[in-house]
Amino acid sequence: MKKTLLAEFTAREGAQDEVARLIGDYAVKVREEEGNLAFDVYTKEAAPRAFWIFEVYRDEDAFQAHLNAPYGGPLNAALVPLIEEDASVLTFLNPLAVR
Q1: Biggest distance spanned by C-alpha atoms of the chain
Q2: Whose C-alpha in 37, 65, 66, 88 is 20 to 30 A from the C-alpha of 58?
């Protein structure tokens, strides 16, 4: 079963460009992961400092491989002083079965 999530955080005032640069560089690496199916970065139109990242992994194993990638920790450490939250807020999503 695919692993799908939404990661959200808000850049501090004046840090939006640096956060965008960091996330853009990170996105390139994540999209190269064998089990990554989507890593789409958005900002909220009405609040451009609000970042939303939609992520889809092939399965739980692919998601765990993503979590263990060597570039994730350094990114998160770099983001901590640049975002309002203590860390990204993660929301795990399940598909709705529609007819």
Answers
A1: 46
A2: 88
C-alpha distance from residue 32 to each of 29, 40, 76, 94 (Å):
5, 13, 19, 24
List strands edge to edge, sheet with 36-44.
36-44, 47-57, 3-10, 89-93
Q: What are phi and psi of 13, to 5 degrees?
A: -55, 130
- DSSP letter (8 states) at residue 12: P
* Interval 52-79: pLDDT, tens: 999 999 999 999 999 999 999 999 999 9
CA distance 75 to 9: 13
pTM of the model: 0.93
Report the C-alpha gap between 6 and 4 in whole angstroms. Answer: 7
68 in Cβ contact with 38 (< 8 Å): no
